[in-house]
Amino acid sequence: MSGGLVKRGFDIVCAALGLVLLAPTLLFAAVWVRLDSPGPVLFRQTRVGRFGVPFTIHKFRTMRVEPGAAITVGEDPRITRSGRFLRQTKLDELPQLWDVLRGAMSLVGPRPELPHYVALYPADLRERVLAVRPGITDPASLAFSHEAELLAAAADPEREYREVILPAKLRLSAEYAARANLATDLRLILATLGRVVRG
Q: pTM of the predicted model, to two decimals?
């Protein structure tokens, strides 16, 4: 069995098991989001997936429904009470288990970006990063787990993201894509869970 099939099989089993075991947590989060502020329970957004194909990513909504920047900077005033907790615990990402199950994402892989950021990728890195399914976690996610705080400290958050953070994340994602295997994925999943537990 090829490595790709093993990875996909692992994703399906873990995502399905996660959705079943975490059903009470998902239900509680959904009810809290619904009661905390007006708007939908889920946040849906178009991201760029494998081979550059757009897909809809799902998260629990953590911000009020109002216009604002695409990136979240520090203590963004749009973040709701439930959203602050969900973001801190990473529970807002749990609906992406459905995206994994349906094949749009993997448990581990480069985090999917918005189309206008993907347009900034250098051609060689773009091809390497988009050759694999995007994931819920990856080395760049761990390295930039406090991205919102970094952006809050920048004079121009959008420029900081485009010129400093995005290129660094892209390099880490390309390195992951070049040597991804099940053992690497397991280490990254454990590292992510450890980071969540430690807060």
A: 0.91
